[in-house]
Amino acid sequence: MNELMQNSAFAGVTLSLVSYMLGMELKKRLKCGIFNPLLISIAVSIAVLLAVHVDYDTYNMSAKYLSWLLTPATVCLAIPLYEQLALLKKNWAAVLAGIVSGVLTSMACVFALALMFGLSHQEYVTLLPKSITTAIGMGVSEELGGYVTITVAVIVITGVLGNILGELVCRIFGIKEPIAKGLALGTSAHAIGTAKALEMGEIEGAMSSLSIAVAGVLTVAGASLFAGLI
Amino acid sequence: MKYLKQFLVILFISFIGEILKEVLPLPVPASIYGMIILFVGLAAGIIKLEAVRETGKFLIEIMPVMFIPAGVGLMSSWGVLKPMLVPVSVVTVVVLIAVMAVTGRVSQAVIRHGNHSVKKEEEKA
After folding, report:
1. By percentage, how much of chain A surpasses pLDDT 90?
2. How many domains does chain B have?
3. Hey, are the CB atoms on A183 and B107 less than 8 Å from each other?
């Protein structure tokens, strides 16, 4: 099996897409938030790989082409943002206030929890960039001397959780304005949260796309200040 | 040909993003530079929306599946994650909810305050 997968340029992509379709079907039939297609796809793919004893690198030989599309797709997030330009101009103060407060909350909470758990400096800076997009977060973690692999894992888990819990959290906290929902998802759960925001609506998607870039850049600046605290 | 041309424009912008990432000493990925370039290009009218729209919308629509390999990658980082599991789990969940709630509530408050004062001014006039 391993040999077959190793020689296949399509096995990993096929497994990823089939498991995603399975997740879409389950979501449609059961109408329950926990049946998130992305989560189901990841879980099913891992289960299948473990069952047939195929390691991640082998799977990624072909699945990496899905990740390859991520850079051009992120570039395209400028399109919904441009389409909502008038809305952005009108609400720039709310947008800025929301993202800045979110970025500060993220780092202040990580700081407080790190104190509570007695984390070392290295463990603390590993978690500091957890809310921002992987590529920026990796850079921040590396520069501050964190464990980059753990940072990546935490960023991905944060995104997937944000994708699953986004609608629920907005409902619990009475966040109803489409602009506010989009900013909340993008600032807390970067691109993976944005994928959910785009499903919610055009305004949500545009605001969430903007948050990825702004929150990412603000965190680069803020993390170097927060890093000195522990 | 339309789709191919649009894909080319998007890939070319991604490539310029990569060049900027090499030249500028910031931990900003090529994708974010590319997003800024495309946004500024569209807003300034240098890039027409028709030059990227359909292919761009398609890429955005299928974006969730692009995160599957990264998620499956968690299976190989399990070893390093295990010793820090408790603090990492608590931080991940608590911070996620806190950031979502604060960002949403703050921006919503500013939006509603703005709408409120606009209404008041209208009433005065």
Report:
1. 75
2. 2
3. yes
What ipTM goes with this model? 0.90
Q: Are residues B40 and B89 in the same domain?
A: no
Q: Is B44 on the interface with A (CB under 8 A)?
A: no
Residue A33 has pLDDT above 70, yes or no: no
Q: What is the 3-state secondary structure (H, E, C) of A71-98?
A: HHHHHHCHHHHHHCHHHHHHCHHHHHHH
Of A132, A159, A200, the C-alpha closest to A42 is A159
The Cα A230–Cα A130 span in angstroms is 17
CB < 8 Å to A175, chain B: 101, 104-105, 108
Give the up-direction half-sphere exposure of residue B28: CA atoms within 13 A in the CB hemisphere: 24
Residue A52's CB: how many other CB atoms inside 10 A?
12
pLDDT tier, A35 (very low <50, low <70, confident <90, very high otherwise): confident
Q: Give the whole-angstrom CA distance, residue A129 versus residue A125.
A: 8
Percentage of the residues of chain A whose pLDDT score is greater than 70: 99
B16 and B62 part of one domain: yes
Cβ <8 Å between A187 and B99: yes
Per-residue pLDDT of chain B (125 residues), as tens digits, is 899 999 999 999 999 999 999 999 887 889 999 999 999 999 999 999 999 999 999 999 898 899 999 899 988 888 888 888 899 999 999 999 999 999 999 999 999 998 777 666 666 65
What is the reported pTM? 0.89
* Structural domain boundaries enclosing B120: 76-125
Contact A152, A138 (CB under 8 A): yes
Phi (first) and psi of residue A158, to 5 degrees: -55, -45
Give the Cα separation of A85 and A19 in Å (integer): 36
Q: Which residues of A touch B77 (CB under 8 A)?
A: 149-150, 152-153
Residues B96 and B52 in one domain: no
* Contact across the interface for A42 and B93, Cβ inside 8 Å: no
